[in-house]
Structures are given as structure tokens and as C-alpha cells.
Write a structure and sequence with these properties.
heterotetramer, A mainly alpha, B alpha+beta, C mainly alpha, D alpha/beta, A: mainly alpha, MetI-like fold, 14 helices, elongated, B: alpha+beta, 11-stranded mixed beta sheet, 4-stranded antiparallel beta sheet, 16 helices, 19 strands, 22% strand, globular
């Protein structure tokens, strides 16, 4: 209690800083989050520039049997080569693109669909709310990974279906988050005001309500991406995601697994890549949550 | 300050973790763990790659299941593991009258696991039952009727003269089941009761199967020598090798090529390389232009370097095959088979007359080995200017596309037990199951003729003729014959592995 | 409480109907003909057609679904397309393996994580706390299937201490899979326990307790901890639910004969009845876990309990 | 019961210094504070929020939150024994038995997941291991009835009680071992006015019944007037004025004390303007030099900014810590305080 008192007093009375700026400053003061952000920035840049670093056809896909299974070395292949003589680093770099694109687009998909459903449920309430929420109840009662697996099972294993499956399995979570946020701001005065001057429902939701629920959505978005990276890797590991020879981290792990005994780097390195990315996203997510919602601190 | 400490700790943990793990990876790779005491001598433990889909005789086409069927069941004539010829099993002789009526004399005193005595009525009941099972036509379709002349004589009438009958009787669909249980609607999947050398004791789904020697087995020479037989399901290749080295299993049914060197280095383990009739083939859809032109198919056939494939994609474990049929059957021939020759390939391409760069061959692949094969084909055909597209997909989609004819190229394999069954596949009536396969009236006529030729030599000559003709047409391209790797504890003896993929566990015994 | 339980159990029914309906409909999208799948490549189109009729695949989808549900109520989940075995008996044989593994790993992770969380909270900002928190951060970020591979690499392949896979070696078979599954849970539970303990040990009632003259340890364990348990139980519930989904991966790595591997095999073979059966059982267990967690709240928190009444 | 010569006083605090140290700064919560509470007496400890009143109370209980809180010096004598040098085990015996504390917020000072009878029993059992379970429960019920709660409500949980009832439970808990001293930290702040009166009445009755000494920490002068025998006015961690109830209420001397009275509405002269003390409490991590009150004091002189004032006594207990009185004792009363 004492601590709380002192903190309140110590905080400078700077009303001039906008809420967003303030959050940003708070985020920057969180070293873990900054480390996460730096890592992710590098990763995203790598993914974007993947084609400049390694040519997809000749270095990532093309097999080079004579140089198969070369261990990591500073001279030849930095991270070694896989069972078909392909440079592991090249495949990791292009794999990062695959992982990021799949996870990002699946989460965007989930946010778009789930967000819309959640916003509608929260804004209109009543029957619509009831229907949408019962639907999410059902979806939430299915373990997420399993749901994604079932969708892939039905549609067939490839990158597009994987994205769809992962997206679909995250829909209920966003629907819940957005609905909860909408409910809290729906009654706010400025929303009432907008409605009273006859703004359309869509406008009210998009212009007035959503911007004010952005905090929890950003946090959830980051954490969901981490989950999606995990699930992308998991499903590809099971052979239900990205199909070889296209590189994906989980897929690399799956094919490296055969050689785990004698060429363990093939299974260690892709796993490290997955783990550090998820770790970075978790750090950032935690940081964002602290920054955007100081009450939880 | 504290946050910094924490961030540093994260980094440090990372470094440590990576360090430890990579340290481990370069750690001692010395003696394999052989701590387990040797298995008790009355038990044989076998590592299988996957669970058998079924233990019945009539509802599967799985190599693993047939292998287990062979433990619990017998047939009138069986396919000998070494010669791949039909030899007497429950019958001891047969005679053929007017080319369609086969009379089999049955062994007496044969007992089923449930105590029933085996008679001709069981044969009649089994075959009549098998004929009712959907999907059995391939194995029972030639049989018109079965009748029991007396308790130990059975007469089988075929629709028309049919040479393949003995082979057909050797297929799992015609393995003999006890009549009494068929009538009761017994679930042979749960309790596979037959006359075989082993009885099923228990089946722990997804984990293991336990068998026990059948004491009253009729064939004294092939009575099970090891009392307990246990199958453990180990899907991962490396894990199977480790289980063998650790003494957890005594026999590995399928060793991964990556583990051979290590297993060979182990003094307690022998690795067997089994040449098989499993023919891995590139099928082309003969209905799709320009693959309807034999010149194009032949050109492609000449341009594929099989040795590249075996070295590159198979760790060297494969046998080059150019003929449309597997080598090793009676009646197999290499005549007219297009061996690797780029000049010839160009010649045929010119004979076709089109522009090679307009040819696009997408190849469906169901696993990464096949992707590797297709990739090598891709670079081979690039030399002719033909474009190959590698299309990886999951097994279920692959299978659906293939059987629906929705493909241009597909890599698949087949391992029937004999050359007649093999060439039957070149008949156009098989196109309902394999759309896009060969469609040639001349070959159809030859296949029918071969089927009706009961005389062995004459039939084999006909088969050779078919094979050489089909080789000219090149409807599909054989890539290689698989070499299957088995491994066992050095004290295990009597091991027989057939070229069709089966193993007679009842003949295994422990040395000393 | 019992009325509440019954109410909750009844509320599960529409959710289960929803799940089966959803999964059933999704599986209808699967390409390929089940009849063809059953008969294999050698069957003629006539045979395929005949089997389709026999299986009722020619009926409208809703009729098929209704039939499935009626059978399900009778405990009949149909027959596998691939193995021709009863789905119910196959699932019944596999489920105990999944359950045993889940329980062992849950028990171990809870028993380790909660004390760690408490100690970390009490010794906040010490080396112990920092180590625990870094490890748990890594723990929640480490994919379980990779963890499984690394455990196999170190403890089975390099050290040879424990079996590589399977469930045939008694307790030794359980060690690696339960660590692989449990580590992430342990990390998550420890983190939550720590943060909720940090909150509760600063609560006034803990100070009140100390002012009564009871020892520091009993104030923490007797007052702070029961209150911190409430958020912890939530996380334990979420993690237990995750065990069910995560089993798919770990069981695949360890060739564990449980439901997770069964569903993967069934998906690869497009064995629809088996997939449906597995999904039903796993979703039911998932819902049951959630129910148990909710009921636990009632036991732990009298405020929730009085809401039931 | 009485040990040693000087223990006419239940509580005696001498020059207590308490700091809270965090990574960024040091908070001077209590600075050289001294006070005494005589046997059976009630002392009102008055001051604004953040003056260090609660910290003082916690210091007596030995419950300063660690590791941030540090007692730097001084002595706290309970019945003549210095509690600052007691071991944890000894402190455990003292808490609840010799001194117990009633906390500010009854809503949060009861454990929400434990029935109230168990919470009271816990206090009883902590100091008397010889009692059986049922005896303990019996005693707990007696305590409940004493504070006016029917015994059959004992198995209920805090959320089932109103605020006033909860505070009664807290009081029952505090009194359960008949302590010599009760520290009541704003016991009624969180309660409705009507309930306040009830609770205060109850406390007064019980205190008389048990002949317990009490420190009444509050910022409410009304409560002080109602319950206390003497008053200490606390500002920024130290006592600025002390005296009997009459001394302080009839004749407030320190500008801060006057300020406190000045910020109360007056019933006798409703037109009189409220005169709140200007400014805010100083940042306790950055206290002004000299007299801590000078930045807010209308009468601040140069010496106030440099030197700490010493107590000036006005007969009996009444003293004031202010430079205005240090030099000219006689003229002190005539100083024009700006009216």
C-alpha cells in the first residue's frame, strides 16, 4: 500500500503526453520487450529480403546430393546442409518467410472475421450476441490445434489450407476479446453522442468503438501470432502444413528428425529458430500488455 | 536495472541451452547402449513400422497385414518365399481337367486354433465368403464355383481357362478360415483364428501385438520354433535401429538407409539387404497430350538416369530397372527396355516432332523421398528441354488424385507376387482403377491369352512377349526396384525374407 | 453445488452437438470417396457404388449426421474406414494412454511449478526468482515437440538412460513424454503462481494474519496461497486443456499409443469416423476439464460458491 | 504484568526512524518520532495521508514490509521491552498477544476464502496451543458475540458480511487474546457514518472492559475528540505537537495543527471560510531541510529552512515542535497568526 502511494506521487504530472505516446515510452522502458522487438524486426527484414540473400530455386529447393549432410562450419555452409545437400541457413531464412506469412495472414484473417463477429455481438447485443457467443462456445470447446488439424484433414495439406485452418481456429478468441472491449466502450458518452447524431452502425463501430478497444486487440494479436507460429510449425511437423520441398521451420524439424542421431544440428537449429521467435513475441506481448494497460502492472 | 539483469539472463540461458545441446550433439558417439540383457530365448520381438490396418484376410491390401495374416492362416497353395512359385500348403496336390476344373487334394488332420478340424467345407465357405467381400474381384473374380467333393477333396471351377488360379489362391483373400466361425459372423479382426503357426494373444492398439506358437500346427517343418512372438510398433526409423541396438527388439522389419552404417558397425547386429520385386515407377497419364505419344514416353524413359536416383535419393539402396516389369519374376525380361541414353532420347523426341519446351510434366509425390526422385528427374529431363514440376502433397490427396485420373505424372510402386498378376495390369480393363494407364487392344489380347494358358512355359513365353511389347510402348517408366533393409540380432537364425516383402517368423530360431 | 453441476453438464450437450455438427460438416469437405478408400485401388466402380449405398453415403448430409448422432448416443461411433474396427473400441483402447500421460505430466508439473512459483514470489528479485522466471519464459516459448526431440537426443540417444519411444518400458516410458508435455505447463503455472502470489502476499489480509501472531510461513501458505490458487487454477485448467491438443504432437514424437497419434494417423488416412470419434472424445474431455476447473473455483472461493446457490 | 520501573507506559517510542528503500530512491517515512501511551490510555495519532502514521503502527507490530522497509534507529518499548531487537520467533509471540492492530480497510483485511471463525480461531490458537479445537472455536464464538455477531454466523465468509460487520470481526480478532495495546489504523474510514459511530462505541466499550491501551490512528479530529485521552499530531514522519485532548483541541499551537482545525467546517460560524493548508505534503523521498513544514507555513522564518525545531513544553504533556515557540515562549501565544 505504501509503495502504491509513493508511486502515484512520484509520477510526473505530464498531461500533455498522449495515451499512445505514453504507452510507447512505457514499452521502450521494458528491456525484454525491446529485445523482442529488435529480434522480430531483424527477422521480418530477413524474411522480406530472403530472395536477395538466397535464391529460392537454386539454393533453397535445388538438391545437391554430393554435398549432403555437411555439418555446420565457418568455411562451407554456416549451419550445414540437409539430407539433400541444401544449405540449412538458406532454408531457415526462406522458412522464416513462410512461417511469418502463414502466421501473420492467419491471425489477420482471424482478427478480421472474429473481430467483426465480436464487434457485432458486442454492439448489437441480444439475439445476434447470443448466436455468435454460442458459436464461439462451440469453437472454444475444441482444442485449437485439433481444430486446425481437422480442417487440414478435410481440405488437404497445403499452405493455403494451413493458413485457413489456423485462422479459423483463432476466430473465437478474437470474437471474445473484441466483444468484451466493445461492451466496455459501447455505453461511453462519445459513442452515445455519435449514435444520437444518427451515425450509421458501421461507422460507429469502425470510427468510434474499435479505435478504443485497440489495446487488448494489439496484445492479443501479438500473442496469437506467437501461437500461430507454434501451430504452423506443429502442423508442418506432422506433415499437415507446408509441404516439402518448400521450407518451413516445423517441416525442417520433421525432416531433420530422421537424422537426429548423427546430424542433430538438423533438428536443433530449426527448433531454436521457432523458440526464439515465439520467445520474442511473448516478450513483446507481455511488454505491450504492461504498456497498454498500466492497471495490470 | 533489474529488467536488464533479466534480459541478460534470457540471453545467457539461450547461449547455455544452445551450447549444451550442440555440445551433446558432438559428444561421444561411441559404444551403443547394450545394457539390456539379451532377450529370453523363447521370445522374438519384432519392430514394425506401423500398426497393421487389419488382421482379417479380406479387407485390406496392406503389406504389414498380409505379413501377419501369414502367421495365423494358410492357403491351399502358398507362394514360396524363395522361389516366388506356388507350392502346396493346405492342399498337397491338384489336377486340372478341361482347363477350367481344378481338383485339390487336402491335407488331413489339420487343426484350426479353435480346435476345429480343417476340411473341404472350410475351403468352400472361405472362398464363397471372400467373393462377397467388396473389392475382392481381383483375387476371386476368376473363380466360378467351389464345391466339396468329399471332406478332403475340393473342386474349383473357373469361368474360363485361367493360369493365375494358384497364385490367386495364395493371396490373403483366399486364406482359409474355419467354416463354423464364418457362419457365426466371427470378427476375424479381433481374433484371427486360422490354421497358422502362431495364435494371436493380445493386441494393444497402436502399441504392440503378441502371438504365441500354435502347438498343433500341421506342418512339422515349419512349426514355430520360438514360443512367443511380439510385434512392437516403432514408426521412426532411427528409433527402430536404437531399439535393436538396445536389445529391446530382435528383428527390425524395415531399417532406414540412414541407420545402416551404424548398425553394420555393431557386432551384435546383422543387416540384410533384400532385393525385392517392388517396382517404383513413374506413371504418366497416357490420355494426356503429348504423353499419348509413345515416342514422347520413350524419350523420357531414355533420359532418366536411374543410378542418379538411387545414389541421390535412396542412400544407394535400390536396383536399377528399365523394364516395365520387376526383375526377379519368372517371365521377367529386359527386352526392348530403354536404358539410359540421351542420344536415343533426342532421337525419339525428334520422331515425335514437337517442341520439347512445350512439354510440361507435373509429378505428384506423396513423400519426400519421392520428391527427391522427382527432383532428380527434373534435372535429367531439363537436358531435353522438358519441364518437370514437382508437386508434393499429402498421401490422401495424392491417392484421391491418382485414382481419379487427375494427374499427368505420378510416382508410385507396386509389388505383386508374380509376373502374370503384373502384366494383367497392362490390360485396359484395369483403367477403371488406374485411369490413364495403357490402352492397347493388341496388349489386351495378349494378356487374355496368357491368362488362359495353363501350361507354364508357354505362358511365361507369352508374358515375356507382353513385357517386351509394353517396353516398346513405354506407358510408364520403371525407376528402380526397392532394396528393403532388415536387421536382426546376430543370434537369430533361420531368417527368410521374400522379394515380395514377407518374412517367415515361424522359421526363425535362436542359435545356441 | 450438485444442481450447478447438473446444470453445467446439461449445458455441455448443445456444445457437444455443435462440435460434432461442425466437425461432421468440415469432414464432408474432404475430397475422395470413403467407399473407394475402403475398397482400395482394385475395386470396380460398381463395387464402389454398391458400398456407398450400403454405407448410406448417398443420403443427404443431414440425414447422415442425424444417423451418426443417434448411433453416438448408443455408444456406436461407427467403423473405421481403414481398419474396419469399431471406432469406439479403438478409441477406448487408446484413450487411457493419453489420459495416463496427461495425468502424470499434470501432476508432476503442478507439484513442481506451484512451489517454485511460491518461492519465486517470496524471494522476489533474487537469483532464484530470476532463474525461475527466465526458465519459465523459455519454457512457455519452447515448442513441446521440439523439446521432446531434444529430450530424446540427450537422454535416449546420447546418455541412453530412457527409452526412445513407445509405452512398453513401464515407468521409464513415461519420463520423457511427461516432461516434454509438462514443461510448458510447468512454466506457465509457475509464472501465474508467482504473479498471483506477488499480489496476494501484499494483501492486507496477509498482514492481518501476521498481526495475529502466526508465523510468516503459515501466513503465506495459509492465507496468501489459497487466494493465489484461484488464478492458478484457471491456468492449470487451460494447460490441462492444452495437454489434450498438445498430445497430438508429443505422442507423435514418442510413438505413444494414445488418441493424439491415432488422430494423426486417421487424418493422414482420411479415416473420417475415426477422426470424428477422436474429436468427440477429446472435446468431451476438454469440456470436462473446464467443468472440473469451474467446480474447483467453487471449492476454493466461497464467493463463487455462493453464486451457484 | 508490570515489568521494570519505566513501564507505567504500555508503549513508548523513542526517536524512531524508518525508511523505505527502493532501487530508485529512499523514502523517509518516519523521522525521529517519539511518543508514549500510558496504561489504559488512548492516544490519537493525527495527520494527513502519508504522514507516516501507518508505518509507525507497523513498526510497533514489527510488520514493516521487507526488504524495502528498514528501521534505522530508535527504540520501541512495549511494556518496557524493546521490540526492535526481538527475534522473529519472539515477535510472533508479541503480535496478537501483547499488541494487535486493527487495519484501515475491513474489506481487504479479512481473508476472503476463510470462514471468519477460522480466522479468529487462528489468532487464539497462535497464542495458546493448549486449547482443544472445540475450545478454540468456543472462544472464537464468544469473541464474535462480544462484538455483536451471532455465533452461528461464524462459519460464513467475509463477503457475506457488511463493512461494519467485517470491522467488528477484525476487532474481535484483535481482541481475541486480550492484548495490552491495540493499534487502530483508521478503523472507521471505510465505513458509513452511522456504522462508524457504532464501531467506535464498540471499541470504546471493549477497551474499557479489557483495560487495553490504544493508539488511534486517524485523520479525523472528530474521532479523536470522541475516543482519545491525548493527541499527537504527525507531519512528514514526526510529531509536531502533542498534548492531552484538551490541550490540543482547546489550544492548538503548531501552525499545522491550527491548519488541521482550520480545514474543518465550523458549526458555530457557518460563514467562516474554510482555511485549508496550502500546498501538499512534501515528497517523503525528498524532504525539505530544517522544519519539514516550512514550505507550507505562513510564518516560516529563515531559521525554519535550516534548523530542525526542538520541542517546546507548555506544562504537562503539551509540547510543540516549532521555531515560532522555540525562542519566545512567552510571546508565543501572542503571535499573530495571520487573521
Amino acid at each position: 500500500m505504501m509503495k502504491h502511494l509513493f508511486r502515484r506521487r512520484a509520477e510526473p504530472e505530464e498531461g500533455s503526453m498522449s495515451l499512445l505516446q505514453e504507452s510507447w515510452m512505457r514499452l521502450l522502458s521494458n528491456k525484454g520487450a525491446v529485445a523482442g522487438m529488435v529480434f522480430l524486426t531483424i527477422l521480418v527484414l530477413t524474411a522480406i529480403c530472403a530472395d536477395l540473400i538466397y535464391d529460392y530455386e537454386t539454393e533453397v529447393i535445388m538438391q545437391d546430393i554430393p554435398s549432403r549432410l555437411q555439418p555446420p562450419s565457418l568455411k562451407g555452409h554456416l549451419l550445414g546442409t540437409d539430407e539433400y545437400g541444401r544449405d540449412l541457413l538458406a532454408r531457415l531464412v526462406h522458412g522464416s518467410r513462410m512461417s511469418l506469412v502463414v502466421s501473420f495472414s492467419s491471425v489477420v484473417l482471424a482478427l478480421a472475421v472474429g473481430g467483426t463477429l465480436g464487434a457485432m455481438a458486442g454492439y448489437f447485443g441480444g439475439v445476434i450476441d447470443n448466436i455468435i457467443m454460442r458459436l464461439t462456445d462451440v469453437l472454444l470447446a475444441i482444442p485449437m490445434t485439433l481444430f486446425a488439424i481437422v480442417i487440414v484433414a478435410a481440405l488437404g495439406a497445403n499452405t493455403t489450407n494451413l493458413t485457413l485452418a489456423l485462422g479459423a481456429s483463432s476466430i473465437p478468441i478474437f470474437a471474445r476479446v473484441v466483444r468484451a472491449s466493445v461492451l466496455t466502450v459501447r455505453q461511453a458518452e462519445y459513442v452515445e453522442a455519435a449514435r444520437s447524431i444518427g451515425a450509421k452502425h458501421g461507422t460507429v463501430i469502425l470510427r468510434h468503438i474499435l479505435p478504443n478497444c485497440i489495446g487488448p486487440i494489439i496484445v492479443q494479436f501479438t500473442l496469437r501470432i506467437a501461437q500461430a507460429i507454434y501451430n504452423t510449425a506443429a502442423l508442418s511437423f506432422l506433415g499437415m502444413g507446408v509441404q516439402p520441398p518448400a521450407p518451413e521451420w516445423g517441416g525442417l524439424l520433421a525432416s531433420g528428425r530422421t537424422y537426429i542421431r548423427d546430424y542433430s544440428y538438423l533438428s536443433i537449429i530449426p527448433g531454436l529458430a521457432i523458440m526464439s521467435t515465439i520467445l520474442a513475441l511473448n516478450l513483446l506481448g507481455d511488454g505491450l500488455r504492461d504498456a497498454l494497460d498500466p492497471r495490470l502492472k | 536495472m533489474y529488467k536488464w539483469v533479466r534480459a541478460m539472463c534470457v540471453v545467457l540461458a539461450f547461449v547455455l541451452l544452445v551450447g549444451t545441446l550442440s555440445g551433446c550433439s558432438q559428444g561421444t558417439q561411441g559404444e551403443p547402449q547394450g545394457g539390456e540383457p539379451p532377450a529370453p530365448k523363447d521370445t522374438l520381438r519384432v519392430a514394425l513400422t506401423s500398426e497393421p490396418p487389419s488382421l482379417t484376410t479380406c479387407d485390406h491390401d496392406s503389406l504389414i497385414s498380409v505379413g501377419l495374416n501369414l502367421l495365423t492362416f494358410n492357403s491351399l497353395y502358398k507362394i514360396d518365399h524363395a522361389s516366388l512359385l506356388p507350392v502346396p500348403d493346405l492342399a498337397y496336390e491338384y489336377s486340372v481337367e478341361n482347363d477350367t476344373e481344378w481338383t485339390f487334394k487336402l491335407k488331413e488332420g489339420v487343426k484350426f486354433h479353435n480346435g476345429d478340424l480343417f476340411t473341404a467345407h472350410d475351403v468352400v465357405a472361405t472362398i464363397e465368403y471372400a467373393k462377397t467381400v467388396p473389392g475382392s474381384t481381383l483375387y476371386t473374380g476368376s473363380i466360378k464355383s467351389v464345391e466339396a467333393i468329399d471332406d478332403y477333396t475340393v473342386k474349383i471351377t473357373t469361368h474360363k481357362p485361367y493360369a493365375g488360379l494358384l497364385y490367386d489362391l495364395g493371396y490373403h483373400y483366399n486364406f482359409i478360415l474355419p467354416k463354423s466361425l464364418i457362419e457365426k459372423g466371427h470378427d476375424f479382426n479381433m481374433e484371427p483364428i486360422g490354421t497358422g503357426p502362431y495364435k494371436l494373444v493380445s493386441w494393444d492398439y497402436g502399441n504392440s501385438l503378441k502371438y504365441e506358437a500354435f502347438e498343433d500346427y500341421f506342418d512339422a517343418d515349419h512349426k514355430a520354433k520360438i514360443k512367443n512372438l511380439e510385434f512392437v510398433i516403432i514408426p521412426e526409423g532411427a528409433s527402430r535401429a536404437i531399439a535393436l541396438e538396445a536389445g529391446e527388439v530382435d528383428f527390425v522389419w524395415e531399417v532406414s538407409g540412414a541407420d545402416v552404417a551404424r548398425l553394420n558397425a555393431n557386432p551384435n547386429v546383422n543387416v540384410l539387404e533384400v532385393d525385392t520385386v517392388d517396382n517404383v515407377t513413374l506413371f504418366m497419364n497416357n490420355d494426356v497430350k503429348p504423353f499419348d505419344d509413345p515416342n514422347v514416353r520413350r524419350a523420357i524413359n531414355y533420359a532418366i538416369n536411374r543410378q542418379d536416383i538411387i545414389d541421390g535419393a535412396l542412400n544407394g539402396y535400390g536396383r536399377v530397372n528399365y523394364s516395365v516389369i520387376s526383375q526377379g519374376f519368372w517371365g521377367s525380361t529386359n527386352k526392348n527396355a530403354p536404358e539410359y541414353n540421351l542420344d536415343k532420347a533426342r532421337e525419339y523426341l525428334n520422331a515425335w516432332g514437337g517442341d520439347p519446351s512445350t512439354i510440361n510434366l507435373p509429378i505428384l509425390c506423396s513423400n519426400e523421398t519421392r520428391v527427391a526422385i522427382a527432383t532428380i528427374i527434373q534435372s535429367n529431363l531439363a537436358q531435353l528441354g522438358i519441364k518437370v514440376e514437382v508437386v508434393p502433397m499429402d498421401t490422401a490427396t495424392y491417392f484421391a488424385k491418382w485414382t481419379a485420373g487427375d494427374y499427368v505424372g505420378v510416382i508410385a510402386s507396386w509389388s505383386p507376387s508374380n509376373s502374370l498378376t503384373y502384366v494383367q495390369r497392362f490390360h485396359s480393363n484395369r483403367r477403371n482403377a488406374y485411369p490413364g494407364s495403357l490402352n492397347s487392344p493388341e496388349i489386351d489380347a495378349l494378356v487374355l491369352q496368357a491368362e488362359g494358358t495353363i501350361d507354364n512355359d508357354a505362358r511365361l513365353a507369352l508374358i515375356e512377349e507382353i513385357v517386351s511389347e509394353v517396353n516398346l510402348l513405354s506407358p510408364q517408366i520403371s525407376l528402380y526396384q526397392s532394396v528393403w533393409l532388415r536387421a536382426h540380432h546376430k543370434d537369430l537364425a533361420g531368417i527368410v525374407c521374400s522379394a515380395t516383402g514377407y518374412t517367415a517368423y515361424n522359421d526363425f530360431y535362436w542359435k545356441k | 453445488m450438485i444442481r450447478y453441476m447438473i446444470k453445467r453438464l446439461l449445458a455441455m450437450i448443445p456444445v457437444l452437438i455443435g462440435i460434432t455438427f461442425l466437425v461432421f460438416m468440415i469432414m464432408q469437405l474432404a475430397p475422395g470417396d470413403p467407399a473407394r478408400l475402403i475398397l482400395g485401388e482394385n475395386a470396380s466402380p460398381e463395387e464402389v457404388k454398391e458400398l456407398r449405398e450400403q454405407m448410406g453415403l448417398e443420403d443427404p448430409v443431414l440425414v447422415q449426421y442425424f444417423r451418426y448422432m443417434v448411433n453416438l448416443c448408443k455408444g456406436d461411433m461407427g467403423k473405421s474406414y481403414i481398419t474396419n474396427r469399431l471406432v469406439a473400441s479403438e478409441v477406448a483402447a487408446r484413450f487411457p494412454y493419453t489420459l495416463k500421460l496427461a495425468l502424470v505430466s499434470a501432476a508432476v508439473s503442478i507439484l513442481i511449478a506451484i512451489p517454485l512459483g511460491i518461492i519465486a514470489a517470496v524471494k522476489q528479485n533474487t537469483i532464484f526468482d530470476n532463474t525461475c522466471m527466465v526458465l519459465s519464459l523459455v519454457g512457455i516459448s519452447m515448442p513441446a515437440f521440439w523439446m521432446a526431440l531434444m529430450l530424446v537426443l540427450v537422454f535416449s540417444l546420447r546418455l541412453g538412460w530412457l527409452p526412445v519411444q513407445g509405452a512398453n518400458m513401464g515407468w521409464r516410458s513415461y519420463v520423457l513424454p511427461s516432461i516434454a508435455i509438462g514443461f510448458m505447463n510447468m512454466a506457465a503455472i509457475a509464472r501465474t503462481t508467482r504473479s498471483s502470489m506477488l499480489e496476494t502476499i501484499r494483501q492486507d489480509y496477509v498482514r492481518t494474519a501476521k498481526s495475529k501472531g502466526i508465523s510468516n510461513a503459515s501466513a503465506i501458505l495459509g492465507h496468501a496461497f489459497p487466494n493465489a490458487l484461484i488464478p492458478t487454477v484457471t491456468v492449470v485448467g487451460v494447460q490441462l486443456g492444452g495437454l489434450i491438443g498438445g498430445a497430438v504432437l508429443t505422442e507423435t514424437v514418442f510413438a505413444w499409443p494414445g488418441l493424439g497419434r491415432l488422430i494423426v494417423q486417421s487424418v493422414n488416412a482420411r479415416d473420417v469416423p475415426m477422426i470424428l470419434g477422436c474429436m468427440v472424445v477429446m472435446s468431451v474431455s476438454f469440456s470436462v476439464i473446464n467443468l472440473v476447473v469451474d467446480l474447483l473455483y467453487g471449492l476454493l472461493d466461497p464467493r463463487v460458491k455462493s453464486m451457484y446457490a | 504484568m508490570v515489568i521494570g520501573s519505566q513501564s507505567n507506559n504500555t508503549l513508548e517510542i523513542r526517536d524512531l526512524v524508518v525508511e523505505y528503500r527502493t532501487r530508485e530512491r529512499v523514502v523517509h517515512a518516519v523521522n525521529s518520532l517519539s511518543l508514549t501511551v500510558g496504561r489504559g490510555q488512548t492516544l490519537g495519532l493525527v495527520g494527513e495521508t502519508g504522514a507516516g502514521k501507518t508505518t509507525t503502527g507497523l513498526a510497533v507490530m514489527g510488520l514493516i514490509p521487507k526488504p524495502a522497509g528498514v528501521v534505522l534507529g530508535g527504540a520501541i518499548l512495549l511494556n518496557g521491552e524493546d521490540v526492535l531487537h526481538k527475534s522473529d520467533r519472539e515477535m510472533k509471540q508479541i503480535r496478537g498477544k501483547t499488541v494487535s492492530m486493527i487495519f484501515q480497510d475491513p474489506m481487504s483485511s479479512l481473508n476472503p476464502v476463510m470462514s471468519i471463525e477460522r480466522q479468529i480461531s487462528e489468532a487464539i490458537r497462535a497464542h495458546d496451543r493448549s486449547l482443544t479445537r472445540s475450545q478454540v472455536l468456543q472462544k472464537a464464538h464468544e469473541m464474535l458475540e462480544m462484538v455483536g455477531i451471532p455465533r452461528d454466523r461464524g462459519s460464513e465468509y467475509p463477503h457475506q458480511f457488511s463493512g461494519g460487520m467485517k470491522q467488528r470481526v477484525v476487532i474481535a480478532m484483535a481482541l481475541s487474546c486480550k492484548p495490552d495495546l491495540i493499534i487502530a489504523d483508521e478503523p472507521t474510514t471505510a465505513l458509513d457514518v452511522t456504522i462508524q459511530a457504532q464501531v467506535l462505541g464498540l471499541m470504546k466499550d471493549l477497551k474499557d472492559q479489557y483495560r487495553t491501551s490504544m493508539v488511534m490512528i486517524t485523520h479525523d479530529l472528530g474521532i479523536v475528540a470522541e475516543t482519545c485521552d491525548s493527541v499527537s499530531v504527525m507531519y512528514a514522519g514526526s510529531i509536531v505537537e502533542h498534548g492531552t485532548l484538551h490541550d490540543v483541541f482547546d489550544d492548538p499551537l503548531h501552525p499545522y495543527t491550527k491548519g488541521l482545525f482550520g480545514s474543518l467546517p465550523r458549526l458555530d460560524d457557518r460563514r467562516a471560510k474554510l482555511q485549508p493548508i496550502k500546498g501538499l505534503m512534501p515528497d517523503p523521498s525528498n524532504l525539505p531541510t530544517g522544519c519539514t513544514f516550512w514550505p507550507r507555513c505562513d510564518h516560516a522564518k529563515d531559521v525554519c529552512r535550516v534548523e530542525k525545531p526542538n520541542p517546546t513544553y507548555f506544562g504537562g504533556e503539551h509540547f510543540v515542535n516549532c521555531h515560532l515557540f522555540n525562542e519566545e515562549i512567552s510571546g508565543a501565544r501572542t503571535v499573530n497568526m495571520g487573521d
